């Protein structure tokens, strides 16, 4: 990749081409949990926090009526920092001169002005729409007065609260290298290789620790023993589907179906019953958060167990990891010889963190040498660069959805299963359809549902 292309894809400020593209989409800005006093006691009296997103600074707060407000962080009077504002129930007040704003950005009071002043009526702080979905607060940073796209009818947004759980984590790197690890099916056989298989009884909530659907083969065994996946890329209306085949023997093939949701998310299986939808959200050019919605297809999720599993690695209130470059990501050479391929513990989030942080704040892609197993990464880069060009020419990029188009995008299908070697395509579609049909929150029809996403395999005009 040329240096100019690398800069084009990784710089996200308001005036940059990639930044302008990303502002066409809803961006995760915070977890609803970040306003839970049980997790952050400060929120009991003052539900307000600073947010940095796509290189811009905001304040996010909830008023006494439960409305969310996302405003520019600098007071429109003389630029003081509204992250230190007084929360007064119906709005927030700048301590400098007492100017007060509500969740819509309306100026409510300018108390230092003369009693007959109409200045307040002429001042408005820029506010940004906020939408709460499945435990995440999404922000729309598009041009003022423009209409945001609709949310697709994906499982993570249509499942009830009992069957979803949201979490996030900080990464000291650019958003693009964080995303690219998720559209690289080959890395799991190495980066996440364990030399022993754990009991499947303890796999709940753990990536790559369960069994493939319909079998007792631990996923760790499949990844460890079959390290050359045959990767297929299928353009879809939402981005692309990746199918990784690991041929076990003459009669059996392991099939792993994952998805890249344009522009910043992927959807992958956590287990036979839970999927992960994960966004990679730029804080600025050199930092990002990953946001994940876990979606369950059978029993309600054990949210507290899943939260505590992850808080063993991340600290509140900022969801920053306990390990990183400062302590060599917990590297242990003895463990590397006997337990894990990385020597960086059992949690795959640490493995991914090292893989995306160790190339530096912004990876120098002019020095890389891509191979056949990187075909998903190459396909995404082409699509992203084309979308930037489309926006620069005044067009609309992929996945800027009308309500009608959003309702048609369902699923998408994710599968981790052992299939007949000669019938793997029909097998994975059947596995997904049966799981979906059995979900207690899925609407019931007269017939078996179509495997989600199958009808969306046509190439997008901007793909």
Summed up, what is this model?
This protein has 463 residues and is of the alpha+beta class. Helices cover 21% and strands 25% of the residues. The chain has two domains: 26-139, Rieske Iron-sulfur Protein; 153-456, Naphthalene 1,2-dioxygenase Alpha Subunit, Chain A, domain 1 (Alpha-Beta Complex).
Through-space gap between termini: 19 Å
Radius of gyration: 23 Å
Q: Under the CATH scheme, which architecture of the largest domain would be assigned?
A: Alpha-Beta Complex
Helix count, per DSSP? Answer: 11
Beta-strand residue percentage: 15-25%
Briefly note the structural class of the backbone.
alpha+beta
- Overall morphology: globular
Mean pLDDT: 92
Q: Classify the fold: give the CATH topology of the largest domain.
A: Naphthalene 1,2-dioxygenase Alpha Subunit, Chain A, domain 1
Compute the number of structural domains.
2
Supply the CATH superfamily name of the largest domain: Naphthalene 1,2-dioxygenase Alpha Subunit, Chain A, domain 1
Descriptive notes:
This protein is of the alpha+beta class. The chain has two domains: 26-139, Rieske Iron-sulfur Protein (3-layer Sandwich), CATH 2.102.10.10; 153-456, Naphthalene 1,2-dioxygenase Alpha Subunit, Chain A, domain 1 (Alpha-Beta Complex), CATH 3.90.380.10. 21% of the residues lie in helices and 25% in strands. It is globular.
């Amino acid at each position: 990749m040329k240096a100019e292309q690398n800069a084009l894809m990784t710089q996200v400020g308001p005036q940059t081409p990639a930044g302008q593209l990303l502002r066409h989409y809803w961006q995760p800005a915070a977890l609803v949990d970040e306003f839970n006093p049980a997790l952050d006691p400060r929120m009991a009296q003052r539900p307000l926090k600073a947010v940095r997103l796509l290189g811009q600074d905001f304040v996010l707060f909830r008023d006494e009526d439960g409305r969310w407000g996302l405003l520019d962080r600098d007071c429109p009077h003389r630029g003081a920092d509204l992250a230190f504002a007084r929360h007064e129930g119906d709005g927030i007040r700048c301590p400098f001169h007492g100017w007060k704003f509500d969740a819509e950005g309306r100026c409510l009071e300018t108390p230092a002005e003369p009693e007959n002043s109409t200045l307040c009526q002429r001042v408005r702080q820029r506010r940004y729409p906020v939408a709460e979905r499945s435990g995440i607060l999404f922000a729309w940073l598009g041009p003022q007065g423009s209409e945001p796209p609709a949310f697709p009818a994906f499982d993570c947004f249509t499942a009830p609260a009992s069957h979803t759980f949201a979490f996030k984590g900080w990464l000291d790197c650019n958003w693009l290298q964080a995303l690219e690890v998720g559209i690289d099916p080959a890395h799991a056989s190495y980066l996440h290789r364990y030399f022993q298989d754990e009991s499947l009884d303890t796999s709940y909530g753990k990536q790559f620790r369960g069994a493939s659907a319909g079998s007792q083969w631990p996923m760790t065994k499949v990844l460890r023993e079959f390290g050359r996946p045959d990767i297929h890329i299928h353009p879809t209306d939402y981005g692309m589907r990746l199918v990784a085949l690991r041929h076990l023997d003459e009669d059996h093939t392991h099939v792993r179906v994952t998805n890249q949701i344009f522009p910043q998310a992927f959807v992958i299986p956590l287990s036979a019953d839970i999927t992960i939808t994960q966004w990679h959200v730029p804080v600025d050019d050199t930092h990002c958060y990953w946001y994940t919605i876990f979606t369950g297809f059978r029993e309600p999720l054990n949210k507290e167990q899943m939260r505590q599993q992850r808080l063993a690695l991340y600290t509140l209130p900022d969801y920053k990891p306990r390990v990183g470059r400062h302590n060599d990501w917990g590297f242990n050479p003895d463990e590397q010889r006997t337990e894990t391929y990385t020597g960086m513990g059992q949690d795959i989030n640490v493995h991914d963190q090292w893989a995306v942080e160790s190339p530096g704040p912004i990876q120098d892609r002019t020095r890389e040498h891509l191979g056949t197993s990187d075909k998903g990464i190459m396909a995404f880069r082409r699509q992203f660069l084309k979308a930037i060009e489309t926006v620069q020419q005044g067009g609309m990029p992929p996945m800027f959805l009308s309500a009608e188009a959003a309702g048609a995008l369902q699923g998408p299908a994710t599968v981790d299963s052992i299939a007949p070697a000669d019938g793997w395509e029909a097998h994975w579609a059947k596995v997904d359809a049966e799981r979906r049909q059995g979900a207690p929150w899925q609407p019931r029809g007269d017939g078996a549902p179509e495997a989600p996403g199958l009808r969306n395999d046509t190439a997008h005009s901007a793909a």
